[in-house]
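Hi C.,

You asked whether I'd gotten around to modeling the 154-residue construct. I have! Everything is below, sequence then structure, no commentary in between.
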Amino acid sequence: MAQHPDVPRDPDTVPVKERDESAELQPFLDELQNSQELRVNGLDARDAASAVLCTLARRLSDGEDVKLMRALPGGIGQLLGACEIHRGPSHAKRMHRAEFIGDVADHLRIPVDQAFRVLTAVFTAVRDRIPEDEVAAVASQLPADLADLFRRPV
């Protein structure tokens, strides 16, 4: 039997596979954790999803963020809006692509070009789990170039 060296871990960090997540949330987090975009940056799937969804919630109107949260199955929607970092006094903050990606980069403390890749991975995972009419509704509230990214299967 192969022995694995003890890898020091932050005692507050629980690996994705060891968390008690819902049947829908765990595959979502696993999909993100296994993506090249997150591995390259050493990011945790929950942190990456939270950063992107937090920024997205800030961009959407109050009604649309609730609709998206309800459309996302089993706990994924709870990640939407759970972040305090980017949450402002009101929703539907107008922001262009560079500001959106910059907010994600700042949240995750990674370079902007890497934040775009993480954003793409999270958008894809979210889009794959919501009905087409909700994809269209969310995309309608994003800047044109981000709306195309949200709509487009990658």
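If it helps when you're writing up: Helices lie at 25-33, 36-41, 45-59, 62-71, 97-108, 112-127, 132-139, 144-151.

Thanks,
B.
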